[in-house]
TrEMBL record:
Keywords: Metal-binding, Oxidoreductase, Zinc. The lineage of its organism: Archaea, Methanobacteriati, Methanobacteriota, Stenosarchaea group, Halobacteria. The keyword Methyltransferase does not apply. It comes from the Archaea. This is Zinc-binding dehydrogenase. Residues 160-271 form the Alcohol dehydrogenase-like C-terminal domain. Its cofactor is Zn(2+). GO terms for molecular function: metal ion binding; oxidoreductase activity. Belongs to the zinc-containing alcohol dehydrogenase family.
Amino acid sequence: MIDARRLYFTDPCEVEVRSVTLDAPEEGEVVVETAESGISPGSELLVYRGEFPEETAVDETIEALAGTFEYPLPYGYAAVGTVTDCGAGVDESWRGRTVFAFEPHADRFVASTDTLVPLREGITPTEATLLPSVETATNLVLDGNPRVGEEVVVFGAGLVGLCTVHVLSQFPLSNLTVVEPVATRRRLAAQFGADRAIAPAAVGSDAAPSAVDMVYELSGQPATLDDAIETVGYDGRVVVGSWYGKKRAPINLGGSFHRERISLESSQVSTIDPDLRGRWDRERRFDVAFDHLQTLDTERLCGEAFAFDAAADAYRTLADGTVKRPHVTFTYR
């Protein structure tokens, strides 16, 4: 048996680090001692605030996230650590490797080697905790399928939004605009490759783009869909990457949305677009995400690191919006 400590979301705006006992690794499994784990400011704040839809599956594609959304809930999916022990049938070369795993926040965990990704040379544990956000950005771009010369607008310059801007900036678009209420994030968006970054108040004015080819809605606010629909042009696409949870807003679908044949498309990283599954799988997509991570200016994204025992402070700081940079991590040593 192995002693460990795991983070639980226990009630709205309450978290708790609890002692747990893990089974020894079975055949094909290893023990990983966590060095750092990344906090997803979008989905984890929904869970923290109690805004998740009850009885919805957490993620049916990830073994460590089996179950449904209900308190108490262990959550998180960006753990990086070192393999310290191996079960039967595991090659000893795994011992001592630094690996990434889609595991909830905990100081150690047991996992199958099939679910672990060894870090590439030159990638630090802190940088590796960004992999889920970069993979989400990669999936958003695959789903949106931007074309040469198109004009694209991204609503929301949070962590996923900025990663998406980074990937999109490598395409031969005619223009890439970001709409973001926070001035510091607008400046970051420009540094990550946006041609311009504007405040939401400018939408609908001469200062904002209109009749664009595609819009990404990544703000996390359902009311933003109205601005997204207003911004896209005839036969345009709105790709919705936000997870709204239980948040609701009235959306105007009675005007331009209907007459201008606008498409609303959901993008979710748990699965691959059916049109791409003949050539793409999760392994290929993750490899591409790793490539993009290696070209990402991670120093501009990575900010405060909280000790695992200070988890409550970390979520309060994120919820208050007082973090200086978008990416926040836990440290365990």
